[in-house]
Amino acid sequence: MELILQVLALEPTSQIFAKEPIVPFAILLVVILVVPILFERLQLPGLVGLLVSGVVLGPYGWNLLHTESAMMPVLSNIGLVYLMFVAGLEIDIQQFRRTKNQSLGFGSLSFLVPLVVGTFIGRFFDFEWNSSILIGSLFASHTLLAYPILSRLGVVNNEAISVSIGASIVTDLAALLVLAICVAIKDGSFSFGRLMTLITLLTLYSIVVLVGFDWAGKQFFRRSGDEEGNQFLFVLLCVFLATVGAQLIGVEKIVGAFLAGLAVNETVGEGPVKEKVVFVGSVLFIPIFFVNVGLLVNVPAFLQSIDTLELTFFIIIGLVASKFIAAYLVKLIYRYNWQETLTMWSLSVPQVGATLGATIMGYQAKLLDDRILSSVIVLMLITSTLGLFITSRVAVGLTNSGMKDIGTVNLTYQNQEENDSSYSIVVPVHNPQTQQHLIEMAALLARQSHGRIIPLAIATAFAHMDAPQLDASVQRSHRLLAKATALSKVLGVEAEPLLRIDDAFAQGISRASREQKASLIIMGWGKRTGFKARLFGNVIDNVLWASHCPVAVTRLVESPKKFQRILVPLENLMTPSLQPVKFAQILADANQAQVTVLNVCERRTSSSKIAWRRSQLSLLISRLALQNPPEIQIIPHENTAQAILQAARLYDLVVLPFIRNRTVPGGLAISDVTTQLAKQLTCSIVMLGEPQRTQDIIVQTEVTSSTTAAMSEGIV
């Protein structure tokens, strides 16, 4: 009531918000929920939207939010700590160990060269030596924003990419240590003895965190079993204990947060605890931190200051050039080719996590001024866009290291468990309108594979098992299963209906499929809009993320028994993309239909190269040992999606592959081409995704590096 009276009394808005901290928190929640979605629909990163929101709502905009309020500093500092912790948690330690020598080499060069260039720029603009060195260290780190692109292309196991991932550990750690030293000596009382004392404390502290927390985490996780809540709290305790420890020895808290992420990295693994930890940070605290950074930016002053614009220009050019020099030196030392060198350079260009965190800490310590803060934010936006753009262009066609030394792997959909059990297809039934087509498709596949169908109905659980709502849900499920069983009998396929009571549909589907040792899950998808924003909806998204076997998400506009022509577009020629060919051919054999494998290359590709690509693609497909090999078609075109859309007009079904990756935000990596196709195709669609473990096995084939590199030349 008091707040309403203040509004009616026409008090200034800023005074009202200052008295009621819950109001700016509500505004923050609205911003975090709405703004990223709007920016992503505009094909812009949600991160940019959060920064822009901070600028617009801050003291230099509408003056609705303030950095000095009681709430913002606490939440923003937690977000900063969380950001650095997640940066350490997401690093692949195993991959670093495999290429540690090269990673140390590239990491050292990628740190030292930008450090020298950045220090020179700082001195050129009259910053003190301490501040100039800190500016140089801001250049050194890099953020692996392009990992989803690399995962989609199937080249994450390439040595150059593994080295770039490993180098991020070196550059981030070194940059944070420089930050710690610069802040510690900012008062001017620098001495060699104090420096050695600080380095000694840092070394001992790092050993305690990296070794002690790792050991304690493994012991706690082993003894706590499946108590995810306690494990989650233990991880958070490690983060903030490391943060407090860093401050006790006189270094910045983000150093401790990053080390804590590295320490519990292997303990947490890729399980549900990591998912919960990352979820809490990425949904609430980290977005608040980015909004708070936007509050600090004075856009009018930035645009009016020629000196700031010049500094920003030199910082951007210096960063991009120094990273290229480092990548070129690594090329000379380790003899990488130009494509690998440019990929390493593009991966080291984006500056987000460690750079922004160190900038904020330096700004708060009065080592960096408003000019540097504004310049770094512009640097972050430009390098993120530039790095992703270059990676998407130059990483196409890279080969996976180790392919020459690994024997042939059978490219089938069978999991290890399927060797001892029949081919089982789980069909979740919920919508009576799509149920018949799903059962028909499952029947065709099961009959061809001599398998069985498991119609699955999920009844939502309630606290009391005698609840009337549960009885109604169970009865409805029985009706759906009876209809599915009758339809399967008509189609001549064995059906084993299954009713499961579970807390959630996706959870019930994933668990039941695992219990039944399912070989494939077939689900329906009725929506044709909002694909990129919602990605099939929550239920399908969660099943795709959690399931142990391949998942076929279908949009069927006619009966699968009528499919006579099936198209399988391959966006790239890496081996994992051949899995949809196997799926399509099984379905085609059941209908005596024809499968066409389509690959789109650049329009300027010569006829001889097209013929060679066709022969190499035939060789790869021959590894599937299909009784009726598909037709192969190579189309030169400047736009991959448009070429596929034009070709799809003559087909009844299009099978689209996509990557399921549990190590990237959101769990799924859908290419832009696949997104566009799913929106515009008018025929039936099957989106086929496989578990990450299957992809890791499949990618290890006997295809030589030289062959695959030549095949991939000119791919869009």
Automatic annotation (TrEMBL):
<feature type="transmembrane region" description="Helical">
    <location>
        <begin position="372"/>
        <end position="390"/>
    </location>
</feature>
<comment type="similarity">
    <text>Belongs to the monovalent cation:proton antiporter 2 (CPA2) transporter (TC 2.A.37) family.</text>
</comment>
<keyword id="KW-0813">Transport</keyword>
<feature type="transmembrane region" description="Helical">
    <location>
        <begin position="342"/>
        <end position="360"/>
    </location>
</feature>
<feature type="transmembrane region" description="Helical">
    <location>
        <begin position="103"/>
        <end position="125"/>
    </location>
</feature>
<dbReference type="InterPro" id="IPR038770">
    <property type="entry name" value="Na+/solute_symporter_sf"/>
</dbReference>
<feature type="transmembrane region" description="Helical">
    <location>
        <begin position="131"/>
        <end position="150"/>
    </location>
</feature>
<feature type="domain" description="UspA">
    <location>
        <begin position="563"/>
        <end position="687"/>
    </location>
</feature>
<feature type="transmembrane region" description="Helical">
    <location>
        <begin position="162"/>
        <end position="186"/>
    </location>
</feature>
<keyword id="KW-0406">Ion transport</keyword>
<feature type="transmembrane region" description="Helical">
    <location>
        <begin position="192"/>
        <end position="213"/>
    </location>
</feature>
<dbReference type="Pfam" id="PF00999">
    <property type="entry name" value="Na_H_Exchanger"/>
</dbReference>
<feature type="transmembrane region" description="Helical">
    <location>
        <begin position="46"/>
        <end position="65"/>
    </location>
</feature>
<feature type="transmembrane region" description="Helical">
    <location>
        <begin position="311"/>
        <end position="330"/>
    </location>
</feature>
<feature type="transmembrane region" description="Helical">
    <location>
        <begin position="233"/>
        <end position="259"/>
    </location>
</feature>
<keyword id="KW-0812">Transmembrane</keyword>
<feature type="transmembrane region" description="Helical">
    <location>
        <begin position="279"/>
        <end position="299"/>
    </location>
</feature>
<feature type="transmembrane region" description="Helical">
    <location>
        <begin position="71"/>
        <end position="91"/>
    </location>
</feature>
<dbReference type="Pfam" id="PF00582">
    <property type="entry name" value="Usp"/>
</dbReference>
<dbReference type="InterPro" id="IPR006016">
    <property type="entry name" value="UspA"/>
</dbReference>
<keyword id="KW-0472">Membrane</keyword>
<feature type="domain" description="UspA">
    <location>
        <begin position="425"/>
        <end position="555"/>
    </location>
</feature>
<feature type="transmembrane region" description="Helical">
    <location>
        <begin position="22"/>
        <end position="39"/>
    </location>
</feature>
<keyword id="KW-1133">Transmembrane helix</keyword>
<protein>
    <submittedName>
        <fullName>Sodium:proton antiporter</fullName>
    </submittedName>
</protein>
<feature type="domain" description="Cation/H+ exchanger transmembrane">
    <location>
        <begin position="30"/>
        <end position="390"/>
    </location>
</feature>
<dbReference type="InterPro" id="IPR006153">
    <property type="entry name" value="Cation/H_exchanger_TM"/>
</dbReference>
<keyword id="KW-0050">Antiport</keyword>
